[in-house]
Amino acid sequence: MSALAAMFRSRPAVLVVSATLAVPLLTSTSAAAAEVGEASGAGAAASGLAAERVLKDDVVLTAVRGGTVRVKETIVYRFAGHDGFQRTYPTRTHESVTEDRVHRIENLRAASPDGGPSKATASTAGLHTTVKVAGGRKLTGDHTVVLEYDVRGAITRMGAAEELRWPVVGGWKVPVDEARAVVEGGAMIRNVNCFTGPIGSTIGCTQYYTNHTHTQGVFAQQGMLPGEYLTVVAGLPAGTTGGRAIYERRHTVATAFSVNAVTGAALAGLLVLLVGGVLALYLLRGRDARTVGKRAAEGDQVPVAGTEFEPPNGVRPGQIGTLVDEQADVIDVTATIVDLAVRGYLLIEEEDRAVTGRLDWTLRRLERPQTDLLPYERTLLDALLTAPDGSARDAVRLSELGGTFATKLAQVRSAMYDDVVKQGWFARRPDTVRSRWTVAGILVTLLGIAGTVALALTTEWALAGLALIIAGAALAYGGQYMPAKTARGATVLAHTIGFRAFLERGALPDDDSMAARQRIALFSRFLPYAVVFDLVGKWAETVKDAGERAEGADNLYWYEGPAEWDLSKFAESMRTFTLATSGSISQSRGL
Fold first, then answer.
1. Domain limits, the chain
2. What's the whole-model pTM score?
3. What is the mean pLDDT of residues 569-586?
4. Which helix (H) or strand (E) holds 43?
């Protein structure tokens, strides 16, 4: 830039001087107002700080190879009772959602030729670095401090040039009367510019130009308020320093869940585990499916031979229900109650609704040896006919079980799980297997949640924790399918499926080869299995006309209805009875 241009650039200085002369007056007025509004101790401190100021801040920046800028700052500071001062540099800028531009201040040191503070420390928090210079005593008057440091990241490649940009002066808590900066680039400086005010301001400074050799950029600003900056810009030829901007990945939610080597390996491991789990389930369930498919046809036949009839392999209704879905459900217990009545251990009496005012049933004990009862059946019969005080009773209304039977129901269901293991259909109790896998899955999920939170707050590996959550959830869900039948259990299941197909057809011999009473007995024997398979309505159709064929067949030997009741009403009675029984035995007593 020519000398004429330099003179032209310096013309606004006259106006700035006037503004500068006004700064002490404004500052003094503000200080006086602060003293009036504050308590005496705080007011004195505020007054001391207001009286302090930077008389002159003269900075020399030297750009060297490698992109480092060496800064030497000579500060003339007027003290008013403090032992030092501090100023703040903006050293981190958010360039994007995941990336920051960083300036690093290094090799910080301070000295004072006239007894001023000379101990310099730097601390970085958030987007700023604060430099504090302190001494061993409180000071008054004017003192000079020479502050030196290196800054990296201030030079940026700009196409065919390099740009040095740095807020050389500013970040003070006190006013600055005069600021001056010189940039030595070690090469011809192509262009210069400067700005004053907050970071990012586009307001030009008081004066800027290059010397006559264009190897120095000179910048000046008269009068700066606390918190303002003087930012200098100098364009250098490409390759002058080889410097470049420094960027760092910022830790955010977006970066915390990024895909990298660690999270990629975790996701790949999760995929392997999921595929392995599917394969394991296929092998376990596939074996059951192959056995069932092979032998199902063997069970799909009418299990009647002359006057003898039995379900496949002599399996009881409660056992079938537990075998089919691997759970001892309430409906399996209800079917067992019906089965105990059919086999002569209970009599089910439907009460007359017109007399009692509500629909209810009485379960009455019948005297019969319990030699052929399975353990879970004996547990159920004792639970039904034992009063809350522990005494035996001969009969109980179904409505009396509501709210009192739930704890006993858990004992019956536990005995049913023990039974299917004893029969050799499962290697371990299905409920225990499910519980172990579910608990393990929940623990892994909770560990994954805690790990994800911790990793998201501190690293970029949060996806690894998320993979753990997915693995735990898959473990808990897949655990419901982990109980596996033995080969013997799969064979029994195959016959059971065939037996269900027979019940679904609801077909009994409809000729003279089977008497009406025999039809009723066959119907009764298979009815508990129809309860398990939810086929009561369809199966009841097989004997709705049996009362007309057999004299005195208006009741079943194990089920007695009220007056004017006959078998034509039995399907609805049994449907209502099973629903009421399931509800009563599973209902918990409220508080």
1. 53-250, 251-295+428-483, 300-423+491-588
2. 0.60
3. 86
4. helix 40-51
